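Async update (no meeting this week)

Hi team, since we skipped the sync, here's where things stand on the single-chain job. The sequence we agreed to prioritize is pasted below, unchanged from the tracker. I ran it this morning and attached the output directly underneath so nobody has to dig for it. Comments welcome in thread, and please keep replies under the output.
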Amino acid sequence: MVGATGVAGATAAARVVVIGGSNVDVLARPRATALPATSNPGEVTVTAGGVGRNIAENLARLGTTVSLVSVVGSDFHGDLVLEATGDAGVDIELVRRGLTPTGTYVALLDADGELVSAVSDMAATASLGEADVQLAGDAIAAADLVVLDGNLSTEVLVAAWESAVTAGVGVVLDPVSVPKAAAIGHLLGDGRPLALLSAGSTELEALALDGASLLDRGVAVLWERAGAAGSLLRTREASVELTSLPAAVQDVTGAGDAMLAAYCHAVLTGSTPAEAARYGHAAAALTVGSRHTVRPDLTDANVRSLL
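Output:
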């Protein structure tokens, strides 16, 4: 079982429960530098996405047993998300189908695959309630790690967090975005420890707490991700700077989700946090080198081949 402030005694058969968003990703990429205020020739793809769902799929492809707690609509997009997620090896028994349309994330990329801007409609995720967490109680209690997506409402986030801590299960939190981070900063501490807080520098700034304060508030490992610039992994004992691995960027969408999933997989199979972070960078490099949000040929072996 995973301790509330870290991971101990985990094995290759470790189980993760991911609670978070599921949606479709609509990605638009022009063939050349886009001209403003006009139509630009390019490519538009529609695939299964969502931070929580992406993390779950990456974990499954790496070989970790994973269950997803989420909500999708009773619509065509919901069918697409469930089929793609289940086919990847994720347990989707705890994904509820609701009346709210499946969430949509629409992103405009530049010709090099870098994000220009995005709009997300996560109404279905917002409908995920405390009752969904209660239904997932047995799965949470039997898990070795619970991963929480910051798209959850504050009430659901707290309910899931406390359910895991009560069961002695470590919790990983990704605030997801600056607005979400600003909304949950006050939740850190108050007797709710984290095995890992993983976020970008702007998201950490939005928490209104510096690294030392976070580590003093029960965060066992703080992982500040900086994209191509690498990352900084901190505990109360040490700090480790990591460089990103070289990659020919095709699409940056999903890289952070792959990093976090890979970190969890590596820690649960015996890696130290620093080793797990390096493994996460390798998974991110493979992901940005693909046009897919979750690389369909992602495996533990091809991640380790980059290390």
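Quick observations from my side:
Confidence is low (pLDDT under 50) at residues 1-12.
Residues 69 and 132 are 7 Å apart (CA to CA).
Reply here if anything looks off.
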